[in-house]
Amino acid sequence: MIKAAILGATGYAGAELMRILSVHPDAEVVYPASHSYAGKKFSDIYPGMKGAMDMVLREDDISKAAEEADVVFLSLPAGLASQMVTEEVLSKCVVIDLGADYRLHSKDVYETWYKTEHHSPSLLDKAVYGLAEIHREAIKGSRLIANPGCYTTCSILTLYPLIKQQLIDTSTIIIDAKSGTSGAGRGEKLSSLFCEVNESIKPYGVTNHRHTPEIEQELSEAAGHGIVLQFTPHLVPMNRGILSVCYARLLPGITDEDMKKAYSIYENEPFIRLIDALPETRFVKGTNLVDISYRIDKRTGNVIAMGAIDNLVKGAAGQAVQNMNIVFGLDETEGLSIGAGSPF
Amino acid sequence: MIKAAILGATGYAGAELMRILSVHPDAEVVYPASHSYAGKKFSDIYPGMKGAMDMVLREDDISKAAEEADVVFLSLPAGLASQMVTEEVLSKCVVIDLGADYRLHSKDVYETWYKTEHHSPSLLDKAVYGLAEIHREAIKGSRLIANPGCYTTCSILTLYPLIKQQLIDTSTIIIDAKSGTSGAGRGEKLSSLFCEVNESIKPYGVTNHRHTPEIEQELSEAAGHGIVLQFTPHLVPMNRGILSVCYARLLPGITDEDMKKAYSIYENEPFIRLIDALPETRFVKGTNLVDISYRIDKRTGNVIAMGAIDNLVKGAAGQAVQNMNIVFGLDETEGLSIGAGSPF
Amino acid sequence: MIKAAILGATGYAGAELMRILSVHPDAEVVYPASHSYAGKKFSDIYPGMKGAMDMVLREDDISKAAEEADVVFLSLPAGLASQMVTEEVLSKCVVIDLGADYRLHSKDVYETWYKTEHHSPSLLDKAVYGLAEIHREAIKGSRLIANPGCYTTCSILTLYPLIKQQLIDTSTIIIDAKSGTSGAGRGEKLSSLFCEVNESIKPYGVTNHRHTPEIEQELSEAAGHGIVLQFTPHLVPMNRGILSVCYARLLPGITDEDMKKAYSIYENEPFIRLIDALPETRFVKGTNLVDISYRIDKRTGNVIAMGAIDNLVKGAAGQAVQNMNIVFGLDETEGLSIGAGSPF
Amino acid sequence: MIKAAILGATGYAGAELMRILSVHPDAEVVYPASHSYAGKKFSDIYPGMKGAMDMVLREDDISKAAEEADVVFLSLPAGLASQMVTEEVLSKCVVIDLGADYRLHSKDVYETWYKTEHHSPSLLDKAVYGLAEIHREAIKGSRLIANPGCYTTCSILTLYPLIKQQLIDTSTIIIDAKSGTSGAGRGEKLSSLFCEVNESIKPYGVTNHRHTPEIEQELSEAAGHGIVLQFTPHLVPMNRGILSVCYARLLPGITDEDMKKAYSIYENEPFIRLIDALPETRFVKGTNLVDISYRIDKRTGNVIAMGAIDNLVKGAAGQAVQNMNIVFGLDETEGLSIGAGSPF
Fold first, then answer.
1. Which of B239, B312, B339 lies closest to A19 in CB terms?
2. What pTM was estimated for this model as a whole?
């Protein structure tokens, strides 16, 4: 039985992780922690888990967590993880960080986009970007896994085969992404109120959303050269789900066969479904799946590649468990759903 | 491995049953059937289940189903089940009917409220009302189980202890219930369109909803005398969930202690949570749980007892699996969720 | 042109009042005020009003407002209005208070339910309860109008004729009410977040909601004797709308004719629609209308009377304008909508 | 008083037109018609309009309508208008067609994209594309006005200044648009059910949506050369609203000043608001407004231009009234809202 700690267990991503681990056959939470609610039962904060997860929340103390747990999940605001993680911590446990602190290889890029200092740049080299479909082998032997962002998971996986196989003009990439409101977190902000979100859609972070450099980093690596792209997120009046609609110019002569072949890289991936229909976020809700499909437009010469995930599962907690499964040698799908009910 | 057939597998309740059984450790679907979609893959109709349940749908033929399966679930429009089920079918398999045909003990009451003929009244005596929390022992040995309705499950379980323990004036019962829109089914009706349901709430079936006699039957049995009560359902702009708010006058001298004691009848029930807070449907979403709480109003002399369920799980498919588990001697909670994620 | 001041112009009710007055043919806002946003343009806070209402917000100073305006609307948290309104203020302008401070005739009842001190009890006698359908004549000559609450407006108007005409047993009244989320206000509370409200329904304030004594006061007056009743509100995942479903035992011998006759008291009311169908909140959205209908249940002996309003219009800002129209001798419907678009 | 007929008065766009005209100071509906509901009262179909618009619906007979009305609005499925409108009809009344039949100048393009025959191609030359902000002068003298589509209105107005002023590379245009569900109409389709739309977002019509050639036609005209562009619509779980997010590469040397100057073409437009903030559909809900804003991304060299409208108002019924106002010499804003309440 893998012993798990979760620091930041009462945010939406942390709580989803608590829920998934509460029914995982080979892992158990031994150290649930929350700075805001330490001393309270988890199910007092999330009454839906009464009876299923009633542990008392502890302080966000990574040293204690590392003593008691085999794996420590961090689900914290930007900048905190980089203060907490040390070589010593990593000598005692595996760390899977759901936040952004170890995702970008470059301290400078991090500090530019996140506008906060990085406190442990020496660990950046040790961190593996935890997108199993691309970095599975590296994840296996890692002690520090940077769990990808929600928009980034969806966008990278949707575009990766096209870039890896050099099918598109990488200077023309535009990602228009849409997210459910849980992505905005549990903070008590005016802009997250029901009456401010419901019955409306809006773009935000246009030209400057923090997930941009993360997508660029991974796709640049796949391309073998630097990629600069356009990323625009939107807020949608629904609880969960991310849809990434990615546009790029096809290179001359690329055919549908080339496209199919490129995506066949995923054909044995347990969490990726290549579908003919267009993706809808409801069909991946509650699962760790990524639904991907594409259309070639002969009129314009563009390809439109589309991916959908559940932002709290494949975009956060589920992917973290997928990474835990990999590191600890379990079946990668253990404890994770691959079928979505509907309506849900 | 229990072999299961589902007739009516593509309605919302049937599809939820498909989903639950697809991950049940001791049961498997061998005969999924749909009159409308026979010949197609289940996952063509429910793309969220692609990869998880791709079986081809067959015709709604109970004879064939009974040959191949140990248990046949029926999720059909009113009146069809009573035409299909026969002694012969019951000699071959257990039937769990998610519809209304075998819930009411009286053919006359059925025909009055449902305005359709009952085709197998001789089987009514053999049917057991599948509310395990009340009829568990009878369910164990039954071949024909009438799975309760969604509103009725929630309302009966909320009120049952108060009636059983004679705490309330049974002539004063008012049930004001609210349901998510999946309760209206998958039919292509104007009144079920997004733009007709969204951003509104409405009562319907006032004084004449078909779940009324079902609630009255069970509560009358508990009381030992006939009960007539007021039941009013509402449509709420959400996918899932039922909330039953039940009002009744407390009998003289009844105390909070009496109330607590009455509800303690549920204290070992695996799916009932007695909570202090007021119930919210989100906290049972996706689970087979019933959250129940109550308030005594000293000003008015009333008790307000409140229950919440997921209409597609405890109100339909989950309860059907609970009944299957009981009949086949499995752990009652097998394959059923008892912890709700949030937001979901 | 009537000159209007609005203190508390940036709450949801205040902002709706700003919107209605911005297109009122015979009134204009001269003094819009907001404690939180003084110095900013109204349309900076409510961008939907850019170009339509760009006035700069001023401080919540009732003395200045009274100097400049003919009518001062107050849309403030409980307890503030009773500190602000004085004989001197009333000598200079009409005050229409959208809050609760002057609704209850009794200081004690107010302080018991609102748990805050009332600072100007001597004015309670001067205040008129601003429900025009019942107190129109008194409103005409009043300087201090207590605009009714949202649940109360809907519930009182639905039940009033039945009590006035003595058709029901007033000891059996139960009001089960449902409200859209704008009723919870614009405060940055966890419980008002989109992800905490969406896809769920919950009761709240069971046995102790502050609108209870207000409903009891008005219905007791109509009855000529004290009425104690059960009132239970619910939160619904929609922006606007209140539905009150009211239950009571019919007195012996009361017929449908009696019911019709009782409700005919409203037949010339410009904002009340007596409808045959059951009310749905969407059909009054954005209007100052009240849709009312009822059903007699011969089985139970109960009447179910149902009303629907828009909580921000007839339940707040619209009714305030209706009262202004009455006091200043305008057509009562001026500036108020009596037809609802759908879907909206 | 302008006399108006509406054929197709019970679809969502037609009904919104009925609502707007019911309170228009200088127009009145004299001939409301509906093929499906002829003989019934409009308010029987739209109960929200009871008391405000109770006229009996007549048959969709354009000859009779033309006899009785000064202006005939058509809100019909594609292909019907082109059968109905004749020179004779146009000699008797002005026709404003909310459908697509007269929007495209080319019969061939129409038949290719709409896959239906055009029955009156000779009238295409007489039709004016009713986008007042671009074709106001032509509208003034027209007898046949093709009211633009919803996506097209929003997308064209957002991009027009950039193309007219030659600021962008017109070969790189991508429009990613999102619409509320009323855009899918009132038909009883599975895909429009609440439970199929709610809590999800999906793209549709990728590479082949019918609004594509309409946008291309208008922007090509502005450019003075043919433009081919990418247009992708999405379905959003909300009643109303369209958001168009338009991407294009800026031409070398173009500055923010150039952008501002280009958009200043709209500075006297009564229905266009150039805003600094990013547009949100809620802020134009119920109004005839278009909110437009843009961002230049120096990293990518792209401009992101964003527009928001209410699809049933500026995208359909409101714009039709705007056109009527222009043709009949009224103030262009008459009867149309320019301030949005919130939350609505």
1. B339
2. 0.98
